[in-house]
Design goal:
Layout (H helix, E strand, L loop, with lengths): L7 E6 L12 H10 L4 E10 L6 E7 L2 E9 L8 H7 L1
Parallel strand pairs: 1-2, 2-4
Antiparallel strand pairs: 3-4
Length: 89
């Protein structure tokens, strides 16, 4: 009789299937599914979106795999043009 308790594993990932690309990070999802056969797994994935709309969280649970996909508006980061840098040096 196996008396060991299931562990809870947390994935914080930059790659995960999302509504824009179902293949993006598919290997991470499959890894989580494999581990979920033996332990509980939670995945947190934040996907930047360009639309200035409300943030959205999509939560799915299936056979020990708990997925939390957060779609969050991301402001464009400030960047310096490399041509400007080379001209000013």
């Amino acid at each position: 009789m196996n008396t060991t308790q299931r562990k809870h594993i947390l994935f914080l990932t930059r790659w995960y299937p999302n509504r824009s690309d179902s293949m993006f990070g598919l290997f991470v999802q499959r890894h989580g599914q494999a581990i979920a056969l033996y332990d509980d797994v939670s995945v947190i994935y934040i996907h930047p979106v360009n639309e200035k709309i409300h943030s959205e969280t999509v939560i799915q649970h299936h056979k020990g795999l708990h997925e939390y996909r957060l779609y969050q508006f991301q402001k464009k980061a400030f960047s310096i043009n490399s041509d400007y840098l080379s001209d000013s040096l």
